[in-house]
Amino acid sequence: MLTIVNPATEAVLRELPEDTPDSIRAKATAARAAQPAWAARPRGERLRAIARFRDSLIRDAEALARTLTAEMGKPIAHARNELRAMPERIGFFLDHAGPALDDEVVLRRGEGGVPELEERIRWEPLGVVANISAWNYPYFVASNVFLPALLAGNAVLYKPSEHATLTGLAIAERLREAGVPEDVFIPVVGAGSTGAALLEQRLDAVFFTGSYATGRRIAEAVAPKLIHLQLELGGKDPVYVCDDVDPAAAAAAMAEGAFYNAGQSCCAVERIYVHRRIADAFTAALVAEARGLKVGDPQGEDTYIGPLARREQLDVLGRQVEDAAGRGAEVRTGGRRLDRPGWFFEPTVVARADHSMALMREESFGPVIGVQAVDSDDDAVALMNDTEYGLTAGVYTHDRGRAERILARVDAGTAYWNCCDRVSPRLPWTGRKHSGLGSTLGVLGIRAMVRPKAYHLRRG
After folding, report:
1. Would you say 298 and 306 are in contact if contact means Cβ atoms under 8 Å apart?
2. Per-residue exposure over 375-396, b if at least 16 CB sit within 10 Å of its own CB, e if not
């Protein structure tokens, strides 16, 4: 059985039967059988089904937000924000699936109704797609995969995270209500062993969102299959605060980037470099911002920081703070687990951090941020690139040219100027190095769900 625990109270919410190797095999077989008929449907039918799914999320947004808050601890205001943003994201896929998936004629020679030679690209669905998703933004992360996959004519075996299973089942229920056949989108329930069993099935593609360590194991497991693999992995996302900005305004932005959703975002700000000229003022302002954040019951309307979704992350954060303090850093606020039921960790700012510390090198995925002063833009770039990750990077400055020169030298898939922790459905979401392989979102994210067939058509 899979036990669903409320991370704010440690009370058991539900117990669900986990899928077994036999049930997963049966689901994979059913998806394989159902996929051709789904792909053969007119695209307009698939588009209308996803539009109805969008409408159901709008209709049930409050109930869905409360379920999400209960099972993974996201503050209710943040859960509502995630649901509120879904219609625009779905709208992007509905508007762009047609143009992205239409045949492309790249050469036509000759005149008349039938040219002498035509070269055409046709985009065909991958087939059966395994979508192994994450808990921190379960609507965003999962839909980045299953929406374009379904629109392109694929069947989806969807494994929600064990920390967001109730949300995953709610998604599946609404897709069925919207007209997606039951065997075309099939939830697979369980923890890590369930995911491993899913990878053993006959699949055409695997899309995973999670940690680098798990992503590497998945890559090793599916390598002999030579199937399509995309990995959306972690980050150690840096921001550089230049010396020409208002320290207080930059600190307010950094507090949101570092502490929103308790820092449990792949693109959360995880390390800050600030020009030495304003380092003291910036750090003092960031500490004040952190101390002003309301920590508490995630169902509370004014709560900004709820519990961590995973109990084990409390120890990870504690070790990082202890290591930093032992190496000369200064814990300016926070640094401890809260003495109360639930998996709460204080919003924490660590000053005088450096790259000898795990805090500045290893993913934190919690409300903990390190700050390091630098003497120049060149120093900042060198430190921003001194990482195994390459997801996002940001620069705060009044000078756009300066920002773009700095960001051009940073090895990351997403670049921010005077913003952070932001994702747009119109832009590809992609990581470098240990942050992953492939792209979701944007037109590239739609094209990730198909494979090209090249047609050479010559009149006889």
Report:
1. yes
2. eebebbbebbeebebbbbbbbb
- The continuous run of DSSP H or E covering 91 comes out as helix 76-101
Read off the pLDDT of residues 92-113 as tens digits, 9 standing for 90 and up.
999 999 999 999 999 999 876 6
Token pair in block for residue 104: 């492309």
Residue located via tokens 């070790």: 319
Q: Residue 127: phi, psi to the nearest 5?
A: 130, -110
Q: What is the DSSP letter of 278?
A: G
Going by C-beta distance under 8 Å and a sequence separation of 6 or more, which residues neighbour residue 71? 4, 6, 13, 163, 164, 165, 166, 167
Query: Which pLDDT value is given to residue 459?
Result: 86
Give percent of the chain with pLDDT exceeding 70. Answer: 99
CB atoms within 10 A of CB 103: 10
- Distances in Å between the Cα of 208 and the Cα atoms of 124, 213, 257, 308 are 21, 12, 24, 21
322 is catalytic: no
Q: Does residue 253 contact residue 357 with C-beta atoms inside 8 Å?
A: no
Catalytic residue among 266, 267, 363, 420: 266
CA distance 262 to 68: 15
pLDDT per position as a tens digit, 197-216: 999 999 999 999 999 999 99
Q: Any idea which residue has 């299973």 for tokens?
A: 165
**Residue 28 token pair:** 């994979």
Which whole number is the average pLDDT over 397-405? 98
Strand segments, DSSP code E, in 267-384 are 271-275, 330-333, 348-351, 368-374
Q: pLDDT value at position 112?
A: 64
User: 210: phi > 0 → left, psi -120 to 50 → alpha, else beta; which?
Assistant: left
Pick the closest to residue 232 from 384, 420, 89, 432 (CA basis). 432
Residue type at 198 in one-letter notation? L
Which tokens hold the place of 380? 């900042």
User: Rounded to whole angstroms, what are the CA distances from 203 to 67, 156, 288?
Assistant: 31, 10, 51
Helix 165-178 to helix 138-151 angle (10° resolution) is 30
- Does the pTM exceed 0.90? yes
Please identify which of the residues 71, 232, 289, 346 carries the catalytic annotation.
232
What phi-psi label fits residue 190: left (phi over 0), alpha (psi between -120 and 50 degrees) or beta?
A: left
Question: Is 419 annotated as catalytic?
Answer: no
Give yes or no for a contact between 277 and 242, defined as CB atoms under 8 angstroms apart: no
List, in order, residues 6 or more apart from 25 with CB less than 8 Å away. Answer: 201
